[in-house]
Amino acid sequence: MKSFFHVSDIGDLGAALEEARQVKATPFAWKHLGTDKTIMLVFFNSSLRTRLSSQKAALNLGMNPIVLNIGQDSWKLETQMGVVMDGDKSEHLREAIPVMTSYCDLIGIRSFAGLTDRGYDYSETVLRQFIDYGGKPVISLESATVHPCQAFADLITIEEYRTKPRPKVVMTWAPHPRALPQAVPNSFAEWMNAADVDFVITHPRGYELDPAFVGPARVEYDQMKALEGADFVYAKNWSCPGVTNPAQYGQVLSKDMSWTVDAKHMAVTDNAYFLHCLPVRRNMIVSDEVIDSPRSLVIPEAANRVVSAQVVMKRMLESL
Ligand code: SN0
User: Which of 52, 171, 180, 285 for a ligand 1 pocket mutation test, highest count of atoms within 8 Å of Cβ?
Assistant: First the structure.
């Protein structure tokens, strides 16, 4: 595997889930693969789970992780080509990338959407530069449009807890005080469309996700109707994807608290499990009652981030 970005990069999902089961059961069985190998984890943005689970996955595989926080530990990096560098950015990605990749075998990048220029974000400008100028396998640790390590961990969690052959999975938008990227819902939609689930997306009008990610999923604007009979409720906020109105890209269009997932919402489901990628704003996205209930899977879901990252790194080490 040369890059991990889209669900297609992992190939057959059944095989990937079986490999995840094995990695979870015997996490140290592939320690030989990573001996004398280094993974660099580069963060342009904050992280808790991604940073720690990626380091843990690398250590389980016998690899040495190096973590770099851009702008704090390093020079501030310029990401746009063709600019006169007379501002606060001291170094360009064009040099920084090949320098960083000369010190490692694999590289993971976190680089959130800027949410001002849709074209810049949706062409994955920063991640593309790592692919083009780095020459080493690249893992998206949430880039502008995708968060595949999260979506893979979500799928592993659904596979572990499902009690029906084809569970109903509902992804619902929920309110948040700030403008957040679309990477998590984009990837979740992409992975659920590829999995054997009945997938429904619900959000207020104006929050339509990019059609490339929505694919054949059902979109239902009535949240309560969408949630009826659900086996898994996946809550997430995202800012306006700018699909119906490009001028609104990255904006907060609604803070409608009637969309907050609470007991009333869960009551119309089929005793659904609750999922969220975390970090979560309590009583904005989800009520205390729901996230603290026995049906909340947010902690096992986060634990599975080690498993998804480890399967990806394992496959990359095997194809070096
Ligand atoms: C990020 C997002 O893409 O939604 C990372 C999720 C894995 N979330 C946030 O930035 C939340 C920040 C906040 O203030 O709640």
Answer: 180
